[in-house]
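Good morning,

Attaching, inline, the backbone tokens for the sequence recovery test we're adding to the shared suite. The designed sequence is right after.
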């Protein structure tokens, strides 16, 4: 008897997993659960996988339900404390609509890039999904870009229409990979003239190593690597959308401080 072992996905990866068939085709697990929780429970507990994709769907559904069912910590009086636990699964993308509004979405034949508002913590969230038509999502990866860097990159793309130098940003979490360090790397480069799609967005994540004062560096090859190639026109559209959003956010913040 063959036993197929599937690496346990994170709660965030499971929530963003796009279902490839059935009544919730092209919707995420989080969306499916919001509409029909029993269906997701069936995927996790009763569905019998017949191939590798089936095993992956079952693993995703199991991880999503496990994240939802994390027990709440209680104090000595039996009440849930007001302070949130230090370690907590990230909420599903649909549950974060108000926390992380969508700024811009770019879709190509094999990848999706969502640029989202995480400005409350001084970041712009880059969430990428690789997919195959007819089969749904293959992998997901996220990166949190400092707003100061996002401003410069948005200007270069919107106004210059090009990048003077390659940009690489290292981020991560000390416990983001099943309790172990998780490395996140974002690369943005311009391949130069003569290319139909010269602007390359790439987000990768995998095992990390804590160095210095909490910094995370990659430890070996990434487990997920998603790239997207854009034409200069597509890159300029993205740059203008991000630049306009950040300018509006700056203006609203200044008005709030003056009151």
């Amino acid at each position: 008897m063959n036993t197929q072992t599937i690496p346990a996905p994170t709660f965030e990866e499971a929530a963003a997993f796009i279902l490839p068939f059935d009544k919730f085709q092209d919707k995420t697990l989080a969306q499916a659960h919001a509409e029909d929780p029993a269906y997701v429970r069936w995927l996790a507990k009763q569905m019998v996988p017949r191939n590798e994709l089936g095993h992956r769907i079952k693993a995703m559904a199991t991880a999503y339900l496990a994240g939802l069912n994390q027990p709440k910590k209680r104090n000595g009086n039996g009440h849930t404390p007001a302070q949130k636990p230090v370690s907590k699964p990230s909420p599903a993308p649909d549950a974060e609509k108000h926390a992380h509004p969508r700024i811009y979405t770019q879709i190509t034949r094999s990848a999706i890039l969502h640029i989202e508002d995480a400005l409350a913590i001084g970041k712009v969230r880059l969430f990428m999904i690789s997919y195959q038509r007819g089969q749904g999502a293959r992998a997901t990866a996220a990166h949190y870009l400092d707003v100061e860097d996002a401003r410069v990159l948005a200007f270069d793309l919107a106004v210059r229409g090009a990048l003077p130098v390659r940009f690489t940003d290292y981020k991560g979490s000390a416990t983001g990979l099943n309790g172990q360090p998780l490395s996140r790397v974002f690369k943005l480069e311009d391949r130069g003239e003569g290319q139909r799609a010269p602007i390359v967005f790439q987000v990768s994540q995998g095992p990390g190593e804590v160095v210095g004062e909490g910094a995370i560096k990659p430890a070996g090859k990434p487990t997920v690597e998603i790239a997207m190639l854009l034409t200069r026109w597509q890159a300029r559209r993205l740059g203008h959308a991000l630049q306009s959003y950040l300018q509006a956010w700056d203006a609203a913040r200044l008005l709030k401080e003056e009151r």
